[in-house]
């Protein structure tokens, strides 16, 4: 790396915020910028975002980061992104054909139900590693084509592009010169063959997605293109990494070390464990490409939960707590559960758009169970926070059925992990250490590490010196034993939410 060009700027384009984080030559964060994003829910179960605003926010924070460190010091860009969200756009103009369909969106539930009824799920799971669910991108791509005038024919002619958020941002950053996605994002579309690492002809035919509309797949670490045509971003900055945000966080925690299971706590949660092969017979979980570091395709066993931090946000809105300023709200969420000994028997199942892993029930709906006259706001907030830990424990229980799975520690990241009460409850429930990253921007860190690997021609092992430290929450094993009964009661309430 040039002494003068020592900065890697990682864009972390998430669901609720776009962030740009600048790392110096030692891997230290020297600047960070963030811009909030809006989510629209025009109908029940529909969740979408403006693709133009996703782009505008991303360009804004990248530009501010470049301005803060000096353009002459920027060696590379990296991108981590919200996964499964789909953008369709016209190749000639670069304008989107519709709003971006969020990963949370369940508008394709009927289409997915039909696939299952027709018996396609075993084939889809065998080829892509993913169960049939509206979460994944392929059914959203199909919806976009079905709801665009002459959509399929135009896509077959290459006039319409379909991609995950990384592809959309790369296309715009390079003025249409680069149309790629990485293996991690491609694996979340339900169109990539896990064994070949390329688009699968049978899946493309089943979902009705023309290959001409899709980006080419590249390793997560390597040259994707160079910036061009933006007044606030110099031309010629290489984009050296692209990866889904949850995969990036797993990479930044421990570079894929065995036994280090990762849970990202955000709007939703991804629980992911590195595994040695794509072979998995645990039907309630997804097998996915964790990343391709330029040399090796690494796999991950994953459970996706749609509503974790989102569950707490919903409860804070519903109880009036969200009217507090952000810092006061965060403090209240940390303090309130400590003021009560229990939830007084209340459980909150946040199936606000259905349940993800390990249930995969898009027809389930949210449920507050066990209300009594003595229940106050503190009990409800505690119930919402507990629901995060139970959902993560449900996924880890399913993971234990995989022959190659081990759990030595739960590595955690994301905004809600700053809640110490929540982290200790998670450790006590699981009976294993919970290790929280000191770096809030762990997805950006993972993307930056992959860019550094390409920039400096390093091995993955040589990146270990750049890994962030962790704070450990040790489990109280006596409390662990007591919490098992409550966790079993939670599972009974989940069953009620699915009726």
TrEMBL record:
Residues 7-251 form the Carbohydrate kinase FGGY N-terminal domain. Residues 262-453 form the Carbohydrate kinase FGGY C-terminal domain. PROSITE patterns: FGGY_KINASES_2. Signal peptide: none annotated. It comes from the Bacteria. Gene3D superfamilies: 3.30.420.40. GO terms for cellular component: cytosol. This is ATP:glycerol 3-phosphotransferase. It comes from Enterobacter soli. The lineage of its organism: Bacteria, Pseudomonadati, Pseudomonadota, Gammaproteobacteria, Enterobacterales.
């Amino acid at each position: 790396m040039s002494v003068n060009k020592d900065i890697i700027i990682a864009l972390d384009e998430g669901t609720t915020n776009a962030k740009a984080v600048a790392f110096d030559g030692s891997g230290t964060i020297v600047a960070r910028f963030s811009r909030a994003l809006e989510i629209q829910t025009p109908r029940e179960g529909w969740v979408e975002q403006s693709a133009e605003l996703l782009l505008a926010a991303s360009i804004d924070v990248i530009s501010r980061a470049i301005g803060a460190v000096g353009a002459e010091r920027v060696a590379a860009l990296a991108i981590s992104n919200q996964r499964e969200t789909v953008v369709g756009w016209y190749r000639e103009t670069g304008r989107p054909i519709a709003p971006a369909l969020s990963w949370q969106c369940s508008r394709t539930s009927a289409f997915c139900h039909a696939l299952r009824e027709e018996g396609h799920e075993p084939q889809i799971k065998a080829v892509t590693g993913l169960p049939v669910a509206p979460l994944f991108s392929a059914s959203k791509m199909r919806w976009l084509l079905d709801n665009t005038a002459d959509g399929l024919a135009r896509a077959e002619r290459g006039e319409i592009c379909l991609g995950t958020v990384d592809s959309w941002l790369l296309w715009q950053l390079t003025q249409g010169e680069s149309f790629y996605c990485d293996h991690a994002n491609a694996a979340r579309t339900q169109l990539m063959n896990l064994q070949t690492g390329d688009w699968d002809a049978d899946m493309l035919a089943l979902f009705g997605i023309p290959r001409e509309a899709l980006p080419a797949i590249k390793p997560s670490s390597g040259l994707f293109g160079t910036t061009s045509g933006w007044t606030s971003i110099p031309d010629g900055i290489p984009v050296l990494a692209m990866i889904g945000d949850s995969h990036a966080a797993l990479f930044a925690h421990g570079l894929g070390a065995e036994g280090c299971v990762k849970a990202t706590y955000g709007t939703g949660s991804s629980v992911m464990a590195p595994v040695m092969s794509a072979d998995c017979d645990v039907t309630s979980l997804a097998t996915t490409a964790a990343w391709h570091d330029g040399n090796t395709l690494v796999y991950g066993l994953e459970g996706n939960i749609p509503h974790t931090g989102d569950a707490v946000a919903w409860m804070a809105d519903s109880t009036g707590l969200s009217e507090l300023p952000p810092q006061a709200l965060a403090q209240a969420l940390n303090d309130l559960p400590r003021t009560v000994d229990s939830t007084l028997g209340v459980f909150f199942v946040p199936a606000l758009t259905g349940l993800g892993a390990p249930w995969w029930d898009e027809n389930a709906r949210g449920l507050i169970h066990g209300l009594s006259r003595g229940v106050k706001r503190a009990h409800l907030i505690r119930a919402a926070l507990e629901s995060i830990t139970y959902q993560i424990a449900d996924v880890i229980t399913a993971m234990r059925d995989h022959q190659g799975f081990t759990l030595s520690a739960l590595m955690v990241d994301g905004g809600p992990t700053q809640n110490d009460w929540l982290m200790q409850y998670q450790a006590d429930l699981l009976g294993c250490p919970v290790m929280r990253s000191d770096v809030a921007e762990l997805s950006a860190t993972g993307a930056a590490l992959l860019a550094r690997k390409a920039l400096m021609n390093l091995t993955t092992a040589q990146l270990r010196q750049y890994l962030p430290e962790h704070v450990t929450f040790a489990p109280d094993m006596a409390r662990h034993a007591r919490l098992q009964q409550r966790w079993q009661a939670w599972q009974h309430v989940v069953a009620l939410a699915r009726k």
